[in-house]
Amino acid sequence: MRAFLPSYNLRQAQTLDELLKLLAAEPGVWKPLAGGTDVMVSFAAGKLTHRNFVDILPIKELCGIAEGKGELILGALASYADVLASASCAKHFPNLQHAARLTGALAIQNRGTLGGNIMNASPIADTPPALMAYGARVELASASGRRTVDYSAFHKGYKIVDAAQNEVLTKIILPLPAPNAFHFYRKVGTRKAQSISKICFAACASAHNGALTNVGIGMGGVGPTTVRLKALESLLTSKRFAQVKEADVKKALEADITTIDDIRSTAEYRKTVSLNVAMQFLSELRKHVELDR
Amino acid sequence: MKSAVQIKLSLNGKDVSCEAHPFARLLDVIREELGHTGTKEGCGEGECGACAVLLDGKVVNSCLVPVTQAIGKTVTTVEGLSAKDGTLSTLQSAFVENNGAQCGICTPGMLIAAYDLLSKNKNPSLDDMREALAGNLCRCTGYMKIFDAIKDAAKKLEAAR
Questions:
Q1: Which entry of A43, A144, A261, B62 is 20 to 30 Å from B154 by CA?
Q2: Which parts of B5-157 are beta strand (E)?
Q3: CA distance A99 to A88
Q4: Number of H helices, E strands in chain A
Q5: ipTM of the prediction greater than 0.90, yes or no
Q6: Backbone phi, then psi, for B125, in 5-degree steps?
């Protein structure tokens, strides 16, 4: 059933300062609205429970992608189209571009933002696994100051994030990977465009003398939140990964992921395809490390 | 409860204004307040692209844009692709000539996406067209006649240059 329009409200904030003052004055009343690609879908379906929104798209401080010292800083309002147009993303973060390209299609990529993708906190969102695998940190601002948190610890439970009602996500900070790092991204959905993932898998690894020195792996669709595959990461870095067998990977995945049946897939399928994708990652990674030796 | 606010924007090259609820969908304001009914509603949830318009020159689904976010901006709908006297553009004529439309619901969005593609890429390949129109669903003709129409328009536009 359609939403009852008059029961909603939308105002605009022109600056970050104005937004933070509003959130401090009436905590919990106003919720930021960016590209609207999730909020407006819930609204049209009559399922949008929150009523008062503040449009943050005019806030320039939250826009842009810029390279800093050893890191890339993405404004929370950077859109998928911005990520795809960014030479820095192309050079250092191909998984992020891959995820952006597979999110919706052009009209969604022009509107949807990385900040929105994070704060909407869908466990099957496409960019969060890439951000997690790259070791992202996120910055939150409130009227009383700013803080930065490790993105791997940001999702606390289904649709629960480590942000207070008076805080807004301002930026995402990605450390630049080693120039010879191996990047791997796979999305398993029903088709190429306009597809919502059954699972998605992002990894970035660097090696030295045939051993892995740094591995980051993030997955979507395999738990109540985007998850970082810590058991698999430590399996791959703990010993010479040439000896890692499929059974070891399977055991690590059992510790890292929980799969469920829902309208898009089954727990069994997700479990199987997760192992297959992890093994594909391992096989391509081995080739990469061999060539790099 | 929130009552209507003043909305001013540029629609197809003309400054227009109306009153609308700030959370109203741009799609509804274009059709019901501003009388431009060329833009169609398909799914109403950002999947089908029937309601695609250009917002400040970028393809967006107007069903997913609260009108507040279009205040002071430039909106181009399918009506804006033809000449002021209603003469169809080369692209629109190519859709007619190549049977690129059947029931017509997806056509306004297809035209907007195709116009955007041709403005960035004068000679798109089949892959380019598939990617640019990936967010526009047609349930009558299939896509080949639509791609034929875009290819034909690209050729005619090239010849006219």
A1: B62
A2: 5-11, 14-20, 52-55, 58-61, 74-76
A3: 15
A4: 11, 14
A5: yes
A6: -80, 175
pLDDT of the residue at A201:
98
Please report the beta strands in chain B, taking only residues with DSSP state E, as ranges in sequence order: 5-11, 14-20, 52-55, 58-61, 74-76
Q: Could you give the C-alpha distances from B21 to B26, B104, B107, in angstroms and in order?
A: 10, 29, 28
Cβ of A107 within 8 Å of Cβ of B134? The answer is no
**Burial class, A211, CB count within 10 angstroms (exposed 0-12 / middle 13-18 / buried 19+):** middle
Per cent of chain A over pLDDT 70 is 98
DSSP output for A100-119: HHTSS-HHHHTT-BHHHHHH
| Residues from chain A contacting residue B63 (CB–CB below 8 Å) | 40, 44
Q: What is the mean pLDDT of residues A17-44?
A: 97
Give the burial class of A63: count Cβ atoms within 10 A of its Cβ; 0-12 exposed, 13-18 middle, 19 or more buried: middle
Strands A182-188 and A199-208, how do they pair?
Answer: antiparallel
d(C-alpha A206, C-alpha A48), whole Å: 43
User: What is the token pair recorded at A54?
Assistant: 């503040």
Out of A7, A37, A192, closest to residue B46 by CB: A37
- Its pTM stands at 0.96
CB contact under 8 A, B116 and A5: no
